[in-house]
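Lab manual, section 2.4: Encoding a predicted structure.

Procedure: take the sequence of the chain (143 residues), apply the prediction step described in section 2.3, and record the output as structure tokens. A sample record is shown.
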Amino acid sequence: MDIDVENEGHYPSYTRYDKDLWRHMILNEHLDQMKSFHGAHPTIVLWDESSMALAAEIGDVETLIFLRDECKCPVDAEATYNALLYCNYYALLYLLMSECDVDFTHEDIDEVERYENATADEGESMYEVRNVVDLARQALALR
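Recorded output:
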């Protein structure tokens, strides 16, 4: 799908708002445009569980908060799984604090840790992996 985007993620007035555009806005972190659309058309629903999972995948906590609190977007365990899989600590933390379902296992956590340890450079990325892994293990221990 070709999406016409003007400067800084603003969409022309003729833009057709649909689920594909909504996904595009999440992927490109166009939160202001999502807020604007939702404010103008609060009864038109373009989001679903996959929106939360996508925001968790890219680690956009502000979008997660907007989708859950403002849009009342449903969330399923895919969101927490994606936050773990893509090592997005703050997204995982927000989802766990919001008491979202968890469907990952200790084996999933071990696999993420092994893969990230094998492919990541030293430094901040390893620190992030360690934090995500520790948080995920704590979440399983509490459930």
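Check your result against the sample. The two ends are 41 Å apart (CA to CA).
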